[in-house]
Amino acid sequence: MKDVKIGPVPFTTVEPNVGIGYVRRECPCKNIKCNPISYVVLEGVCYIPIELVDVAGLVPGAWQGRGLGNQFLDHIRRAPALIHIVDASGSTDEEGRLVRPGSRDPVEDVKFLEREIVMWLMSIIKKDWDKAIRFSEYGKRPLADVLMEKLSGLGYEREHVERELEDLGLSKKPPSRWTDEDFLTFTSSLISERPIVIAANKVDLPEGEEGYKALKKAFPNRIVVPTSAEAELALRRAANKGLIRYKPGDPDFEVVGNLTQQQLAVLEKIREVMRKFGGTGVQTALNAAVFDALKYVVVFPVEDEHKLADKNGNVLPDALLVPGNATARDVAYMIHSEIGERFVSAVEALTGRRLGADSQVRDGLILKILTR
């Protein structure tokens, strides 16, 4: 585990912390002994690693470079999904200063972040716009081509851009006649489809629970997860000391060590929060980002479909997180480019069914790739 500076003070995080988190799902090897190499199994539950980047919060004007804005937004550019940790108790203002709980509307924090991202993305699109539209209007190049060059590296696909232009009525409007409103509408529409999970933190406080309800109401189309990072941290520390039995994402825990009355009282308060919200929410937020927002699935590749093992006999050695619309050939390329190039077909290990190159995979699939 990487040691990083943590604390209840806003902007404790200054430099981005890059580390590994885990998404959780039930393991298909409950009835057999598996030998995972690229992931971890705890009591029949798989924990599959993902890269996490913890970055400092934004201040107003971040898109113009204020504070650590440029650094933050650059990490957003590279991230396929964003977990926005919001102080649902309303105890920090827009500048990150501590205020009385309940005095700040957490809904404004979400609107503020998305506004900063929209302004940042719009500034990228508008840069050298006159030069860009000459290539489009006089060079007869499709506007989508020009926009894709500007959006390069930001995670947008051409069909997405073309769909937004069509839906907003901008596909037939000459780019030289675009107004500021057109830029704002187009950019806001792009951002609205970006995978963002709102982690409503501090729901263990009365103000936090109210803030969570307000966020759910204000953003009905967003994934909003009630979260208590402090409770999760306390449980992890107690589990590491052998005081409780707890797996990240469990809805409850079991006391197994000798605890003082004070420790028991603290844990009982945490248990009340977990019962109310189904857990601490930390693992739920990670799972929501990968499985709900990004719509990824888990595929287990094997070389021996009968023993469910690799060439060394390791049972279910790997777990791949792949897009939900991935095909069998896509999975082959994810394993190795040469395997993808030599792909012939695939076999579902548990059923023996053959899959063609364009067959879509499903969650929990154990897959054997056949090559030339």
In a few lines, what is going on in this structure?
One of its GO terms (cellular component) is cytoplasm. The protein is α/β, with parallel strands linked by helices.
What is the CATH domain class of the largest domain?
Alpha Beta
Helicity range: 25-40%
The average pLDDT is 89
* Straight-line N-to-C gap: 42 Å
The run of helices and strands is EEEHEHHHHHEHEHEEHHEEHHEEE
CA radius of gyration? 24 Å
Number of strands: 13
**Beta content:** 15-25%
Largest sheet: 5 strands, mixed
What does the model show?
This protein has 372 residues and is α/β, with parallel strands linked by helices. The chain folds into 3 domains: 17-103 and 195-291, Rossmann fold; 117-189, Orthogonal Bundle (Helicase, Ruva Protein, domain 3), CATH 1.10.8; 297-371, Ubiquitin-like (UB roll), CATH 3.10.20.30. It is 37% helix and 19% strand. The strands form 4 sheets. A 5-stranded mixed β-sheet has the order 10-9-13-11-12. Helix 2 crosses helix 6 and helix 4 crosses helix 5 (158-167). It is flat, with a radius of gyration of 24 Å. The two termini are 42 Å apart. Residues 8-14 have low confidence and may be disordered. It comes from Thermoproteus tenax (strain ATCC 35583 / DSM 2078 / JCM 9277 / NBRC 100435 / Kra 1). Residues 1-247 form the OBG-type G domain. Keywords: Nucleotide-binding. This is GTP-binding protein. InterPro entries: Beta-grasp_dom_sf (IPR012675), G_OBG (IPR031167), GTP-bd (IPR006073), P-loop_NTPase (IPR027417), TGS (IPR004095), TGS-like (IPR012676), YGR210-like_G4 (IPR013646).
